[in-house]
Recover the amino acids of this structure.
C-alpha cells in the first residue's frame, strides 16, 4: 500500500530466502519424521497411563512430558498446511483438551504483532506479571514478588487453556472439536486418579509456560505498530541452544523461536537446518541474531521479572491493554469497552 514505506533490504532478503526454501521443498512433510515426533509423545502417555495407580508420581511426570510434547506437536499441525495437518488438527484437543480454533485466533495474532503492546495477548500478563514498571493506578502490591511466584502461576497455563478452549467450543458450537476434547476428559476421569489427572496438567503447564515466555518477554517491546515485520520478529525473539538430546526434544522446536516466527508453516524438524540460513541473513543485513543457552535464556527472563519487581511505579506508563479493534474481536482474552 502507498501508506507503507518501501520494503527494507532485510525484508527483501528474507523474501528471497523463503522463496528458495519453498522451491527446494523445505515445507514438505516427511512421514518418518512425523512418526519420530509422535512416538515419544505417545510412549509418555502410555507409560503414565500404565503407572497411574501403581506409581502416581512417576505417572504424573511421564504424562506431563507427554502433554508438553503433545502441545508442541499440535502447535506444529495447526500452523502446518496440507491434508495431513488438516487431518491432525484435532490432536491437541484429543491429547490436551485444547481447541485449535481458540488457539489459532490467539496465536496467529501473536505471530502477526509479536510483542506489540495492546495487541499481542501473550504479553498481557498483568496483574500476575508486569514486563515493565506500571503506572501507579495499575500497579499491584504483589508485583514485588513476581519473580518468586512465577513457576506456581506458570503451572496454571494448561488449565487456563482448557478453560478458554471449552468456553470457545461451547459458545461457537464447535462440536467437531468437542468430541476429541470430551474423549480427553473422559479418559482422565475414568483412567487416572484425580491427583495424577490434575498434577500432570499443572506440571505440563509449568514446563510449557517456562519455555514459551523466555523467548520473547525479555526482548524488545513495541508501543507502536511496526511496519517492518521481519525486523520486528528479529528484535523481539531469542533462540535457545539446548544442552542435551532430552532438552532438544522437550523444547519441541521452540528453541528455534526466530526460525519458527519467520517460517511458521515449515515443519519444526526443518528448523535446525534453517537456523544457519537465518543467522546468515541477519549477519548480511547487520541485525543481531539473538541466541543464548537454554539456562541463559531462562535466567535472562527471570532477571527481567526480578528487575521489574524491584522498580518503582512510573507515572504515565502505558497499559498492556488498550482499546483497539483487536480487543473487540471475537474470542479475545480481553474485551475492550465501547
Amino acid at each position: 500500500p502507498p501508506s507503507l514505506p518501501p520494503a527494507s533490504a532485510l525484508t527483501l532478503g528474507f523474501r528471497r530466502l523463503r522463496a528458495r526454501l519453498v522451491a527446494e521443498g523445505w515445507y514438505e512433510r516427511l512421514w518418518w519424521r512425523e512418526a519420530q515426533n509422535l512416538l515419544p509423545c505417545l510412549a509418555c502417555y502410555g507409560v503414565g497411563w500404565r503407572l497411574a495407580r501403581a506409581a502416581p508420581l512417576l505417572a504424573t511426570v511421564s504424562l506431563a512430558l507427554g502433554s508438553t510434547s503433545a502441545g508442541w506437536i499440535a502447535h506444529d499441525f495447526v500452523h502446518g498446511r496440507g491434508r495431513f495437518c488438516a487431518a491432525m488438527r484435532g490432536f491437541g484437543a484429543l491429547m490436551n483438551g485444547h481447541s485449535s480454533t481458540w488457539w489459532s485466533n490467539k496465536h496467529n495474532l501473536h505471530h502477526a504483532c509479536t510483542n506489540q503492546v495492546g495487541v499481542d495477548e501473550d504479553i498481557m500478563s498483568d496483574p500476575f506479571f508486569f514486563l515493565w514498571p506500571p503506572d501507579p493506578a495499575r500497579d499491584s502490591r504483589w508485583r514485588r514478588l513476581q519473580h518468586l511466584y512465577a513457576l506456581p502461576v506458570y503451572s496454571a497455563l494448561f488449565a487456563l487453556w482448557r478453560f478458554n478452549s471449552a468456553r470457545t467450543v461451547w459458545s461457537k458450537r464447535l462440536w467437531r472439536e468437542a468430541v476429541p476434547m470430551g474423549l480427553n476428559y473422559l479418559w482422565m476421569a475414568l483412567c487416572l486418579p484425580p491427583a495424577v489427572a490434575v498434577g500432570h496438567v499443572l506440571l505440563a503447564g509449568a514446563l510449557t509456560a517456562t519455555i514459551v515466555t523466555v523467548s520473547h518477554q525479555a526482548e524488545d517491546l513495541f508501543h507502536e505498530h511496526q511496519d517492518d515485520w521481519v525486523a520486528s520478529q528479529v528484535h523481539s525473539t531469542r533462540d535457545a541452544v539446548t544442552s542435551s538430546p532430552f532438552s532438544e526434544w522437550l523444547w519441541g522446536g521452540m528453541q528455534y523461536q526466530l526460525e519458527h516466527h519467520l517460517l511458521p508453516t515449515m515443519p519444526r524438524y526443518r528448523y535446525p537446518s534453517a537456523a544457519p540460513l537465518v543467522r546468515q541473513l541477519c549477519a548480511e543485513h547487520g541485525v543481531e541474531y539473538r541466541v543464548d543457552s537454554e539456562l541463559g535464556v531462562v535466567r535472562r527472563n527471570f532477571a527481567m521479572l526480578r528487575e521489574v519487581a524491584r522498580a518503582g511505579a512510573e507515572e504515565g506508563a502505558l497499559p498492556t491493554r488498550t482499546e483497539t479493534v483487536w480487543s473487540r474481536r471475537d474470542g479475545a482474552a480481553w474485551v475492550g469497552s465501547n
